[in-house]
Amino acid sequence: MSLYLEWGNAGAARRGSIEVITGSMFSGKTEELIRRLKRTRFANQQLQVFKPKVDKRYSATDVVSHDANMFTSIPVEHSVDILPLVQRTDVVAIDEAQFFDDALPYVCNTLANKGIRVIVAGLDLDFKGRPFGPVPALMALADDVLKVHAICLECGRPAQFSYRLNADQSTVLLGESSEYQPLCRYC
Known about the structure:
Largest sheet: 6 strands, parallel
Structural class: alpha/beta
Order of helices and strands: EHEEEEEHEHEEEEE
Number of strands: 12
Radius of gyration: 16 Å
Strand order of the largest sheet: 5-2-6-7-1-8
């Protein structure tokens, strides 16, 4: 089983796709995801939303933006746990993709090849500026990629980095503005 590509017939009735929304912390990734989900609901499309169980910052079960907009989701431990849960749906959304394992590209391809629109949001870089989790691989496989930017808190330019404010060196540290701030390359 390839973790990336399994080419197949996406079905005669509809075509699946993979959309990735990425950028630094505080750039509006989840807000954009929720905006797209509201549009699918308006179009009467069936949707399911997933998030990693580890993300409990605002809610253990809901996808929540920094602006407190929210969407009900299903928390899962591993990305392959998503596949058996997808039932008669048009759209699958996945938030905080960077916290999932390397099988997430396989999961997204499998769903897209079944004719499902897959929308994924997540950080592309960790706090050290290195590719983060499965998001860079998803960007390479995606039909569409939107890279959003925060505003640098030092100079006001577009920010693409999530700068950690404390000395913790672990790759995964769930936090908010007390632990991170968006900065541009220069700052």
